[in-house]
Amino acid sequence: MPTINDLEKSTEEFFKLYQFDSFSHPSWSKVNQLLDGNWVNSIYQQDAPGCYALLRGDEVVYIGVGIRGNEEYPYHGIGLRIKDHKSKGKLKDKTGYLTLAFHVKHRHIALALEAFLIEKCSPSDNTTGLKY
Prior knowledge:
The structure is a single chain. The protein has helices at residues 4-17, 78-87, 108-121, and strands at residues 32-35, 38-39, 50-56, 59-66, 96-101. By secondary structure, the protein is α+β, with helices and mostly antiparallel strands. The protein has one domain (4-121). It is globular.
């Protein structure tokens, strides 16, 4: 059962392992609350490309990515992916989420980070794709 702390440590490990010293790498947001499958405030960093983690209490249950947020596709970043989960009823049992936004020119790194974190943390709701 991966926790927020595990997620943050694994993220730091990723950035150290791949030596992302050439730019100031982003960090995870504070916990944003979900109540009955709805966000309490607007989705933090919703237009930005990056990763997100869905929570059940302190447990990280899903890690995902939204990278199309840019000038050509505004409003297609992290927020669109979280809204997809809501439209499919997948937020009902979640209590919160975290976001980690990248600058548009570094959005491809979010894909690698997502794969690394799913392998490292093995969240329970990541049931297809990159889970090992």
